[in-house]
TrEMBL record:
Record bears the keyword Transcription: no
Lineage, top ranks: Bacteria, Pseudomonadati, Pseudomonadota, Gammaproteobacteria, Alteromonadales
Species this protein is from: Pseudobowmanella zhangzhouensis
Catalytic activity: (R)-pantoate + NADP(+) = 2-dehydropantoate + NADPH + H(+)
EC id: 1.1.1.169
Family label: Belongs to the ketopantoate reductase family.
Pfam families listed in its UniProt record: ApbA, ApbA_C
Record bears the keyword Isomerase: no
SUPFAM superfamilies: 6-phosphogluconate dehydrogenase C-terminal domain-like, NAD(P)-binding Rossmann-fold domains
UniProt domain Ketopantoate reductase N-terminal: residue ranges: 4-142
Name by which UniProt lists this protein: 2-dehydropantoate 2-reductase
Main function: Catalyzes the NADPH-dependent reduction of ketopantoate into pantoic acid.
InterPro entries named among the record's database cross-references: 6-PGluconate_DH-like_C_sf (IPR008927), 6PGD_dom2 (IPR013328), ApbA (IPR003710), Ketopantoate_reductase (IPR050838), KPA_reductase (IPR013752), KPR_N (IPR013332), NAD(P)-bd_dom_sf (IPR036291)
Amino acid sequence: MHIGIMSQGAIASILAWRLQKLDLPYCVLSKRPLHPVQIETLEGEADMVLPPGCNGKIPDVLLVPLKAWQVMTALEPLAAKLRQTNTVIALMHNGMGVAEQVHALLPDNPLLAITTRCGALRIESQRIRLTGTGLTQAGAVANISEPHMAQLSELFSRLLPPFEWQQDINQVLWDKLAINAVINPLSALYQCKNGELLQPRFDLLHEQLAAEIAAVMDTAGVSRSAAQLLASIRAVEQATAQNYSSMNRDVTAGKPTEIDFINGFIKQKGAATGIATPLNNELVELIQDGKPPRW
Ligand SMILES: NC(=O)C1=CN([C@@H]2O[C@H](COP(=O)(O)OP(=O)(O)OC[C@H]3O[C@@H](n4cnc5c(N)ncnc54)[C@H](OP(=O)(O)O)[C@@H]3O)[C@@H](O)[C@H]2O)C=CC1
Ligand SMILES: CC(C)(CO)C(=O)C(=O)O
């Protein structure tokens, strides 16, 4: 099985490093010339990754660890070639809504969604720090056969352990979306670390957001109480107390954020099902317009 990794981003470089260590055949597709990357391991050691380019070769499995808003732009130029293959497309991003677009672009390709608690941070242009490991989960979006499932489970168990194949990845993605929809925009707007959101002054915002998200999740067939969502959000705030969220980093660096695929996705699903999501809508606007919060 030949594996392709799209980009030399933070997560992509960790995947390349792991594949290099496992001595598995892989190549990287990048929009820029490839460069060596130094990986700083959890033990503080440094290791080099020198990724081979794909040079026009289409891999059997294409890992797509891009920001949600980059995925379609990256896949569109490859679509004609990919449609002629049975290449498995493995999406790895925060937020929801992209998988449907990719499935419409590549209706016959096997498609899976992956979510990981593995953490990676770019500390210099060619230096990536592995900041943590954690559970990786994947599941079928479309056209994944039993043999695919077995092969992919074996691959990810080696690549990003611990790993679990999920029969219903949609539920897992919604649970992760609920966490990102609270921590990411609030930590970006208040320019704070995740743990600072545990302060009582943010309680009301958490409660209102959890209620809106639980109501929208219910219409998507994922039944969670606001209290259940709050408990998992609080657990992540505790576990990542010293970290800045990805949206905090993007806003600080003046880069585009994934807001449209996080709170924007909730806003869109709410509008489609008649569920009011005023706080989610306001967060989308504030992040998009770079405005300070009024609360
Ligand atoms: N980093 C982490 O710890 C975690 C990240 N995630 C999620 O994973 C996803 C990826 O995150 P992360 O790795 O941090 O993001 P990065 O921004 O580090 O990586 C994205 C990379 O994709 C490159 N890129 C953009 N467009 C293309 C293209 N058309 N072809 C090839 N490469 C392209 C970007 O290059 P350039 O910048 O030059 O445009 C960048 O290097 C996000 O959704 C994130 O939220 C989830 C869990 C943890
Ligand atoms: C879970 C969380 C909030 C950790 O920071 C994250 O996924 C992110 O920053 O995007």
